[in-house]
Write a structure and sequence with these properties.
By secondary structure, this protein is an alpha+beta fold. The protein is built from 23 helices and 28 strands. The protein binds a DNA duplex (11 and 13 nucleotides) through helix 2, helix 3, strand 10, helix 5 and helix 6.
Length: 781
DNA sequence: GGAAGCCGGGG
DNA sequence: GTGTACGGCTTCC
């Protein structure tokens, strides 16, 4: 019997006759399946172990086998012993014990991943074996596996179960659980009823019956799952919602895992994929779906429940539905399926493991093939930060016809070009990085990291080619998703190598990569300048220079030629990415704005880098004013921009501003949890609300307006939407904040914060012309 | 300037 | 379960 399966998650069970590896997935036909594999055993390696250790281990019943092997480790082949044991869960103990005697290798690899590496499985496989009904599982098909083979990847539609709970603010009792299920392009809704115990039992029943691949909801990681687990425990309900009947488990006080399914919090998905100022379900639904939650006062949920149960149930189901549609809208499942394909992992592993594990997935397999020892992940963390990319200084001003060139996969290309790898790092290497580290040339020993990256790069080119040749939109999207995933994975390699203590590397390697990159980009900038071109800016892998032609056609032609010419010289590919007309910066690195005029499909798009305001104490007027001024500048109207900035500031000073645009909001927790509660504006606002007779519940969001910022601490007054605000905002304070924001732009034209505020020039320096002085004034980094 | 603290979502 | 884990901003030292 055979079944073609996309792997969703993998784990193992202890059964009477030993350990069983369980591979969960979805078949091409859309059925849920579990494949059971018997007889795979955990193992690790000892490097040059002393006899006393071997003796002790050989007397131990847990140890199944010991075998002499040779492994390359720290620059040479060494005598090692492969130790096979019978219980994966005991491995950490033996690892700790053995570490007292000698170095231990590959003893910290999760058992199911060890299985996947050893069978070199990808994310889609063929199960070969017999169907054996087994009432342990909720899956439709259960197979006892004889073998597992890799097959071409496919993306089955997954079944997604979204839920939401409503529970008492007073005692935590769960009132209802609403859900929405995505299957075959349709959404089905429902809720569970009964007293709290029945309700939880019914919830478990629904999940077991529906057997979803993915469980979601909004902030379920931090709230709903926690509450449900607590209440179930109190009431003695078995929360066996795993595909094997196991309970969900919290990992590191963070996310949750359950055997056979993926638990993906829609809120976290939104955080990962988008950068939004407001992340509440209401705000995100409005933003992505154009509709909001139902009108229920959840601070008074107990009363609402007493008053109108049907309404609360509807509200609850609606929230579950919104979370589901958000998850679908951002396409995170599809994206991670593509990443699963390129990392050769089950979906759950790629979604819920760190990026270093993605790199492990390719690197450990390759290391095993080449008999290279796999070191343990070091314990040290966050040490010795390496120097990053080169950032070219940016002189303040407005520029025209800026060509932007970008290195294609710069860091991966550098790693390949200079054969940078832990296997090539060597004192007698002939490739010397600017930091002094030496690497063997490709001819003497090809590094395994460069090899993997080279394959990935070729893979990406092939996928891009297939994408271009695609006959249908669907096919095109399929390949586009995969090529993007390869790109993400390639960049992850650098990110992991640059982190100070990844198992396969050390800071010398990360530092060498960036130093080669800095050297390369500096050289190219130097070349461009020696041709008389003005290089305006550059950051890590991009170069911005002024086109010698003040028109579109000439600039496109010139940029294309330059990219081609430099690429040929460097063994690295420079791509002509875009033309900005105009381009503006006030002179700080990583901060600029511009309008794209080429390529055609992005024409008119405004790009803003580094100026985004995402401070927790920001108010709407700040970002609105900034945006308006930028738009004027990009229209080429500098005078207009300056007068607009002055006008906005003086209007705020005079109090001619919509009060809503000055509101600042934040959550307030239990006052006791603050070290210095009285100094915090949110606490002050909450206390004043209570005085006015409003009910305060920890966790509530409060809004306020600053009414006096002159003293040692800010005086604020709560703002209640829809009600008149009976105080006078501290307009001087708001004018100052706005002027601070806008002056960063207008300073380039000689108008500083003081002048925006008072209309008077404060410094004797006037605007342009005095470049040298301007540079010292504005070149803050 | 780096480490520690806190928020954000949810009822 | 061979894994101990957010990301960004602010305040503190």
């Amino acid at each position: 019997m055979e079944e073609e399966v996309r792997l969703i998650s993998a784990s193992y069970s202890r059964e009477e006759d030993g350990v069983v590896v369980e591979l969960y997935g979805k078949t091409k036909e859309g059925k849920s399946i579990v494949g059971r594999y018997h007889g795979f055993l955990p193992y690790f390696y000892l490097v040059e172990p002393p006899a006393v250790l071997l003796e002790k281990l050989s007397e131990d019943e847990e140890i199944k086998n010991m075998e002499d092997v040779e492994l390359w480790y720290r620059g040479k082949m060494r005598k090692c012993v492969k130790v096979t044991l019978s219980s994966p869960w005991k491995t950490p103990n033996y690892r700790r014990f053995a570490s007292e005697f000698c170095e231990v290798l590959a003893a910290d690899i999760p058992f199911h991943q060890r299985f996947i590496y050893d069978f070199d499985l990808g994310s889609c496989v063929k199960f070969v074996g017999d169907y054996k009904p087994n009432d342990k599982y909720t899956a439709e098909i259960v197979m006892e596996l004889e073998s597992v083979e890799n097959i071409e990847d496919f993306k089955p539609e997954l079944k997604i179960f979204s839920f939401d709970i409503e529970n008492s603010m007073k005692d935590g009792t769960i009132f209802t659980i609403g859900y929405a299920i995505w299957e075959n392009g349709e959404i089905k809704e429902g809720h569970v009823e009964g007293d709290e115990k029945e309700l939880l039992e019914n919830f478990v029943k629904v999940i077991r019956k529906e057997d979803p691949d993915v469980i979601t909801g909004y902030n379920i990681d931090g709230y709903d799952l926690e509450v449900i687990t607590d209440r179930a425990k109190k009431l003695g309900v078995e929360l066996n919602i795993g595909r094997d009947g196991s309970k969900p488990q919290r990992i590191g006080g963070q996310f949750w895992r359950v055997h056979g399914r993926v638990i993906e919090d829609a809120w976290w998905a939104v955080k990962k994929e988008l950068r939004l100022k407001q992340e509440s379900l209401e705000a995100v639904s409005q933003e992505l779906l154009g509709e909001g939650k139902m009108d229920v006062d959840r601070v008074n949920i107990d009363e609402e429940w007493e008053k109108d149960r049907d309404k609360v149930i509807k509200y609850c189901v609606k929230d579950a539905e919104l979370a589901l549609r958000i998850l679908l809208k951002i396409g995170i499942i599809g994206k991670y399926m593509d990443l699963a394909t390129v990392t050769k992992f089950p979906l759950d592993d790629v979604m819920h493991s760190g990026t270093s594990t993605w790199v492990d997935s390719l690197l450990i397999r390759e290391a095993d093939r080449r008999k290279i020892g796999v070191p343990l992940q070091g314990q040290e963390r966050k040490r010795g930060k390496i120097e990053g990319g080169y950032v070219h200084s940016l002189e303040p001003g407005l520029y025209h016809w800026i060509c932007v060139l970008d290195f294609k996969s710069m860091y991966p290309s550098i790693i390949i070009k200079y054969n940078i790898c832990f296997t090539t790092l060597s004192e007698d290497g002939d490739i010397v990085s600017p930091t002094g580290a030496k690497f063997l040339s490709k001819e003497r020993r090809e590094g395994i990291i460069p090899k993997i990256l080279k394959d990935l790069m070729a893979k990406r080119d092939e996928l891009k080619r297939k994408m271009k040749e695609a006959a249908t939109e669907e096919e095109r999207n399929y390949y586009d998703g995969l090529q993007k995933a390869v790109k993400i994975l390639m960049n992850t390699f650098y990110g992991v190598l640059a982190s100070s203590f990844y198992r396969f590397t050390d800071p010398r390697i990360g530092a060498s990569i960036t130093s080669f990159a800095r050297e390369t980009i500096r050289k190219i900038i130097g070349n461009l300048e020696s041709r008389g071109l003005k290089v305006v800016y550059g950051d890590t892998d991009s170069i911005f220079f002024e086109s010698p032609h003040q028109n579109l056609d000439g600039s496109v032609k010139f940029g294309t030629e330059m990219a081609k010419e430099i690429s040929e010289k460097e063994e690295l590919i420079l791509e002509f990415e875009k033309i900005l007309e105009p381009f503006f910066s006030h002179g700080a690195k990583k901060r600029y704005v511009g309008r794209i005029v080429w390529p055609e499909d992005k024409r008119g798009e405004m790009i803003v880098r580094g100026y985004e305001i995402r401070r927790t104490d920001s108010f709407d007027l700040q970002s609105e004013a900034q945006k308006m001024v930028f738009e004027k500048i990009l229209d080429g109207d500098v005078e207009g921009a300056i007068s607009l900035a002055k006008e906005i500031v003086s209007k705020v000073r005079r109090g001619e501003v919509e009060i809503e645009k000055l509101v600042i909001s934040r959550t307030v927790r239990d006052f006791k949890r603050y070290k210095n509660p009285n100094s915090m504006a949110n606490v002050q606002a909450a206390k004043k609300l209570m005085k006015k007779g409003f009910k305060f519940i920890p966790g509530m969001k409060v809004s306020w307006i600053v009414v006096n910022a002159r003293g040692s601490k800010q005086d604020v007054e709560p703002y209640i939407p829809g009600k008149e605000f009976p105080y006078r905002p501290d307009f001087q304070y708001y004018a100052r904040r706005i002027a601070e924001t806008l002056a960063r732009i207008t300073e380039v034209f000689g108008i500083d914060q003081e002048e925006l505020l008072t209309g008077k020039k404060q410094s004797s320096l006037s605007a342009f012309g005095e470049k040298k002085k301007m540079k010292t004034l504005f070149d803050y980094e």
